[in-house]
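A reminder from the course coordinator: this example appears on the midterm review sheet, so study it carefully.

Given structure:
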């Protein structure tokens, strides 16, 4: 956690298979500008292999440390962020970065884009190590997650296995129904289909676009940081 600068604090939630390290380029830019930043480490990607509701609890625990937050979630992280933020008094705005802005009854595995559209394909991109560990295949991650990123090797090396249970779990509460939100579409995404992103973005109060693949926090950290700071500014208008 970096506690400096003025409120609100930006809380960052990583996506499936990732970890807080993947935010480092954005963290550096935000803190250089005096912004306070805190990061969530999702239990579903940790050694205990928690589920979506453990992830939601971990996010709430971080939110509880603050009184004024803009909550930013990437990809799968949007689902537990949606659940955790509902009714939380600290959250001023939600930012969904190519994220699953799910509703009650919707799950990560339930969003089916056209077969011809770039998206994660479980049969070719994912592998089960054991019943509680699903991984992105190392030979597929560079193309699917990091094709436009610098230092692809480091990005792949920091990926982790995760609990496959989250694929079928849905949020129990919906933060974006009561909290203003921004959706960020990444238009060259090969992991979360752009058509799915555009569909979900209709639920948000505002929409931005980045000409980036799935990992825009590494490929376009200046753009991501600017959008986050814009979201902060909007929260105070």
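Designed residues:
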């Amino acid at each position: 956690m970096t506690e400096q600068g003025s409120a609100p604090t930006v809380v960052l939630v990583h996506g499936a298979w990732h970890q807080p390290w993947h935010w480092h380029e954005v963290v550096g830019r935000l803190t250089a500008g005096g912004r306070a930043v805190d990061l969530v480490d999702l239990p579903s990607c940790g050694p205990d292999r928690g589920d979506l509701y453990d992830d939601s609890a971990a996010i709430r625990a971080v939110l509880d440390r603050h009184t004024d937050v803009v909550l930013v979630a990437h990809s799968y992280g949007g689902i537990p962020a949606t659940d955790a933020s509902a009714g939380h008094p600290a959250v001023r705005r939600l930012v969904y970065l190519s994220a699953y802005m799910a509703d009650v009854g919707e799950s990560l595995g339930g969003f089916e884009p056209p077969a011809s559209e770039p998206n994660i394909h479980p049969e070719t991109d994912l592998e089960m190590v054991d019943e509680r560990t699903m991984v992105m295949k190392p030979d597929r991650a560079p193309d699917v997650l990091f094709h436009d990123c610098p230092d692809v090797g480091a990005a792949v090396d920091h990926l982790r296995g995760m609990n496959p249970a989250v694929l079928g779990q849905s949020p129990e509460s919906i933060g974006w129904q009561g909290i203003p939100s921004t959706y960020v579409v990444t238009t060259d995404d090969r992991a979360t289909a752009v058509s799915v992103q555009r569909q979900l973005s209709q639920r948000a109060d505002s929409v931005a676009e980045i000409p980036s693949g799935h990992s825009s926090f590494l490929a376009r950290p200046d753009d991501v940081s600017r959008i986050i700071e814009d979201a902060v500014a909007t929260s105070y208008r």
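The two ends are 26 Å apart (CA to CA). The beta strands are 9-13, 37-40, 69-74, 91-97, 126-130, 133-136, 181-186, 206-210.
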